Amino acid sequence: MIRPVIGSSLARIVAGLSAVVLAAVAFGASLNGGGEATPDCPSGNSSSAPYDRAVAMIARRQAGDDSVAVPGARTILLTGGAPTARAVVLLHGLTDSPRQFEALAYLLHADGNNVFVPRFPRHGLYGSDAGALAALTASQLCRFADSVVSEAGGLGDSVLVLGLSMGGTVAAWVAQQRTVWRAVLVAPALEPGRIPSLLDRPIVGLADRLPNVTRRSPREEARPDREPGFSTHAAAELLELGRSLLGDARRAPPRTRHIVVLVNANDRTVKESAAEALARTWAQRGVAVSVFELADSLRLPHNIIDPRRGRVMGDAVLDLLRQLTYGEQPSALVRPLSVR
Predict the structure, then answer these.
(1) Based on CB atoms within 10 Å of each CB, which residue in 142, 160, 165, 238 is the most buried?
(2) How is domain 9-337 classified at the CATH fold level?
C-alpha cells in the first residue's frame, strides 16, 4: 500500500493509481502495451512578441481569466511599463493557481524585473471543481508553455522560467524545446514517488485509458483559487508529458543552456531520481546543469512555496528560489548533487 503525503493532491492521485494497477493485475490486464500517444507539441520555434504586443496578449489572457476563473486565479503580470533586462515566468502546480507564486513574484519585481505568472488551462474555473482538470492534456500543457514563453520574450531582454511540480515539468519542456536564459525546475513531476520506475509507464497508460476518477473536496474559503481534490486523467497526462520529455532529452540536447534543478529529499510525491536522471542526460550533452537538494531533515513538503498547512521556513525558501532564479550561489539550505 502506498502511503499518500497529507495535503498533497498529486500524492493522493499516485495512491489511487497504484490501486488501479493492483486491480488491473488481478484481472489479468496487460501492463506492457502502454498505448499512450506522444503529446502533440509545437516545435519550439515560435518567435517572441514585442513589448506592447506581449502586454496586450497577456491582457487578453487576464480578460479571459476574468470571464471564467475566480478572482484569485487570475494571471499575474507585474511590469513597470517597459522591457527589463530580465523577464521572469513563474509556473504554478497542479490544482493551484498563479497566487501560489504571488509572494515570489513581488519579490522578483522589486528587483527590477518584469514578472509573468500565467494561469494554466482548466485551473481555478468559477463554479467548477477538480473534475474540470480531467480535460487537461499533455498537448495543452506544452502548447500553453510555448505561447507563454513567446509572450514573455517581449517583456525582457532575457527570459528566466521557474516552475514547481507541474510547473517544473513544463519548465523542463521549455528548457528542452525553447531558448531561454535559464530554466529552474523545482520538484518537477516527471515520475510519481513511491512507485518503481518499471511500473510508472504502465500506471500512467492505464490511468489515461480507464475512466477518469475525480475526488472532489469543498473549496477553501481563504483560497478559492485552488482546486481541492484530484483527477486521475490530469495526473496521467502530466506524467505522460514527463515521460515524453525524458525521451526527447535522450534524443537531442536542450535549447536552453543554463538549467537548475531543485529536489527535496523529504518529497514523497514525485521521484527525485527522475529529475536527477534528466539533469544527468542534459549535462552529458555539455549543458550547464546544477542540481541542489533540500535535506530530508528540513521536513519540507512537496509544495515548498505555498503549502496548505502553512509556510515552513517561508522567507528562507523565497530567498533560495530568488537565488536559483538569478543563478547565484544558493543558501546553506541545500547541498549540490553531482550529475556527472
Answers:
(1) 165
(2) Rossmann fold (3.40.50)
Model confidence at 121: pLDDT above 80: yes
Return d(Cα 173, Cα 242) in angstroms, integer. Answer: 8
Give all strands (DSSP E) within 165-254, no chain letters.
182-186, 214-216, 229-231
Amino acid residing at 308 = R
Secondary structure, 3-state, 66-125: HHHECHHHCCEEECCCCCEEEEEEEECCCCCCHHHHHHHHHHHHHCCCEEEECCCCCCCE
Q: Using alpha carbons, select from 113, 88, 69 the residue that is nearest to residue 227.
A: 69
In the chain, where the domains are located: 9-337
Which tens digit of pLDDT belongs to each residue from 170-216? Answer: 999 999 999 999 999 999 999 888 665 544 555 555 555 666 777 77
With vertex at residue 162, the alpha carbon angle to CA 159 and CA 166, rounded to the nearest 5 degrees, is: 130
pLDDT at 28 over 50: no
Distance of CA 11 to the CA centre of its chain: 15
Model confidence pLDDT, tens digit, residues 38-73: 688 877 667 788 999 999 999 999 999 999 999 889
Residue whose C-alpha is closest to residue 259's, from 169, 336, 190, 161: 161
More confident residue, 218 or 77: 77
Give 3-state DSSP helix, strand, coil % of the chain, rounded to 5.
Answer: 45, 15, 40
- pLDDT, tens only, 273-290: 999 999 999 999 999 999
Assess contact for 62 and 74: CB atoms under 8 A.
yes
What is the identity of the amino acid at 286? G
Closest C-alpha to 92, from 145, 147, 51 = 145
Contacts within 8 Å (CB) and 24+ apart, 120-124: 120/91, 120/92, 120/144, 120/166, 120/167, 122/234, 123/69, 123/73, 123/92, 123/95, 123/96, 123/97, 123/227, 124/65, 124/69, 124/70, 124/72, 124/73, 124/97, 124/225, 124/226, 124/227
pLDDT in tens, 291-311: 999 999 999 999 999 876 666
